[in-house]
Amino acid sequence: MQTIYLDHAATTPIHPEVSAAYIKAMDSVFGNPSSIHSYGRTSRKLLDEARKTIAEALQAEPTEIIFTSGGTEADNIAIFGTVSAMKEKGNHIITTAIEHHAVLNSCKELEKSGCKVTYLPVDENGRINAKQVAEALTEETVLVTIMYGNNEVGVIQPIKEIGELLNGHQAVFHTDAVQAFGIMDLDVNELQVDLLSASAHKLNGPKGVGFLYQRKGLQTNPLQHGGEQERKRRAGTENVPAIVGFAEAVKIARQVMADNRMKYNNYTKKMTTVFDQEGIEYEVNAEEAERLAHVVNISFPGTDIESLLVNMDMAGIAVSSGSACTAGSLEPSHVLSAMYGSESPKLRNSVRFSFGLGLDDQAIQAAATSTAKIVKRLVKEN
């Protein structure tokens, strides 16, 4: 049976060139980059080169990149680190109702210790606007954390407009760009963000490594205490092989980014064309919004998500009902709930398809055809 992986928003396969760079570094370089002898200097050179590569992708400076264990840690440093450093200036946070749980659960934890959090509602296309942020701002606001592109429906938020709005306010501006980095061209200066999170495994890099961009001059208090790695901002010996792999993934992503966006948009068109030809009922969620090209979330009326996912898996098609972090429980999506209300049937019949390395038109055609057959059968059974 042919299997087709359509869950690249959850994680991606490692690119062969990334794997080769990762293994080469792991096999040949083992020195601690903080050591002053030749072994350490060799590791430090690789670390510095990787930092420069990643910084260039954001139009940032190498010293503004903090390597982490992934997107979750980067989000946590941004949120807890900022609130701790700004505690004398206020305790108010602004975020949205559709953030990744790495952000939402961090904010909920801070509420327990007395922080005030405003969760901005989204419209039916999953969007907020800069006016909402302006209306929520107070003299006590110390952090605004809004994701660049949503991991479940792909909706892109007006980050640049919000960055302009916050110019001159004390609030630190963080964006979780885990789903967007490697798909979109991101310029931290154009966006006017102070902090930006990303993770290697979303762009065909290794798991267990990410980074936080932190604008020069901005202070965040560290979450863990130990050595003076990452300019005293994140203690712990750096994972040099994984970081080398991450940098290689970034190089490749930048080369193919524009072509990939075009290809992924065509994949969505191809899928919906098949659905139209097969005569099934469906609706693209957040269809009117600007979205990340590799993510499309589709509602299939008359189906149930659990049966849909099981049947698609049996047919060799790997998809998701939302974020991978909560998929095991099959709880209703907090993103779709925020967009359509907690009683909407879309919460129980929507599937996220996400595209990436290893796919082609033939695979998309086959997946769409199989999906249509499954939907027809499930609708008839119901």
Automatic annotation (TrEMBL):
Its cofactor is pyridoxal 5'-phosphate. Keywords: Iron, Iron-sulfur, Metal-binding, Pyridoxal phosphate, Transferase. Gene3D superfamilies: 1.10.260.50, Aspartate Aminotransferase, domain 1, Type I PLP-dependent aspartate aminotransferase-like (Major domain). Its EC number is 2.8.1.7. The keyword Electron transport does not apply. Coiled coil: none annotated. It comes from the Bacteria. Residues 4-362 form the Aminotransferase class V domain. It catalyses: (sulfur carrier)-H + L-cysteine = (sulfur carrier)-SH + L-alanine. GO terms for molecular function: cysteine desulfurase activity; iron-sulfur cluster binding; metal ion binding. It is an enzyme of class 2 (transferase). Pfam families: Aminotran_5 (PF00266). The keyword Transmembrane does not apply. Belongs to the class-V pyridoxal-phosphate-dependent aminotransferase family. NifS/IscS subfamily. This is cysteine desulfurase.
